[in-house]
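Supplementary Note 3. Input sequence used for the single-chain structure prediction.
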Amino acid sequence: MLNVIIQIMVAFPLETEQGHGRVLVVYGAGVVAGGLGASVFEPTAMVGASAGVYCLLMSHIPHIVMNFQSLSHRYFRLVAVLLLCVSDVIYSIRHCLTKGNLQPRIGVAAHVSGAICGLLIGFIVYRGGEKTMAFRIARYAALLLYVAWIVATVVYNVEKKF
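The predicted structure, written as discrete structure tokens, is reproduced below.
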């Protein structure tokens, strides 16, 4: 339930500025990246919607960077994203140290994979800053890293089966 509430809060501003389709692509990419990351680093962990939520959350950063001049409340948004991330990292560390990451078990690999995916896929999918060479370089670098991650994790899983 908490994932759904955070997802709505995090996705709403992105949907109003980037459109439903782009945000859906980002969310879907995060779910895929989270599942693949968990399959490599935590194959026994169950993965839910949290990888997609982390992807949406972290995709705010490329959105803010690419549209910095035109966004209202840009500093507040940046601080809010960082605060959510830092507080969750602190909670996860505390949970792992005090409860041994049990009840509930946090799929750390899925969270991290979703977050990294959000940073990358945001530069690929979101609009803004298209006129600059720096944007084009960031977009192609992000695309290269994302594709490399997907290919590497798929190849790892295929090789693991044989």
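The helical segments are 2-18, 20-41, 50-66, 74-99, 108-125, 133-161. The first helix runs from residue 2 to 18.
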